[in-house]
Automatic annotation (TrEMBL):
UniProt cross-references to PANTHER family, sorted A to Z: ALKALINE PHOSPHATASE LIKE PROTEIN (PTHR42709), DEDA FAMILY PROTEIN (PTHR42709:SF11)
Database matches in InterPro entries: DedA_domain, VTT_dom
Lineage: Bacteria, Pseudomonadati, Pseudomonadota, Gammaproteobacteria, Pasteurellales
Species name: Alitibacter langaaensis DSM 22999
VTT domain boundaries: 38-154
Transmembrane segments: 20-37, 57-80, 100-121, 133-154, 174-190
Protein name: Membrane protein YqaA with SNARE-associated domain
KW Transmembrane helix (keyword) present: yes
Domain of life of the source: Bacteria
Amino acid sequence: MKIFGAMYDKTMAWSKHRFATYWLSFLSFIEAIFFPIPPDIMLIPMAMSKPKSAVKFALITAIASVLGGMIGYSIGYYAFDLVQEYIVKFGYQAHWDKAISWFEQWGVLVVFVAGFSPIPYKVFTIAAGVMQMAFLPFVATAFISRAARFLLLARLAAWGGEKFAAKLRRSIEVIGWSVVLLAIIAYLILR
């Protein structure tokens, strides 16, 4: 069953669309608040298809992500009672507990680590607000972390360029099904 090739082709087409930068910004913004899909899925193909703009795309992604993170922080600070049930409903409770314990242990450094962590970034933005972390250090640390992550991804994707995109397309079914299999195994082990 070949489904990943069609998704890959669609994503590559979106990455070349004239509104791709706006979609990238929007995706980065909402991912830091509630959306489950990270902006990497747009950033990487955009950087591969337009390598000279990779740094610009990374900075746009970082800025939008930090702006979204500021909204997530505000939700945690002012309205956590309204969203607390969704943490459990969408399966983020274990991530939430880990983030809170990290905040208690390391404070602002957790926001830096969050930029590279497999734990969804939105968990950290809301947790920072709940923990009433100082706002300006939160914003500064979030920007440094997110910019570093997205610059790294964009530069690697740009380095590979169109040649890498073509090679990736030839192997996308194997990669896609391998990721699904690993996710199932991880779920069975960690539950």
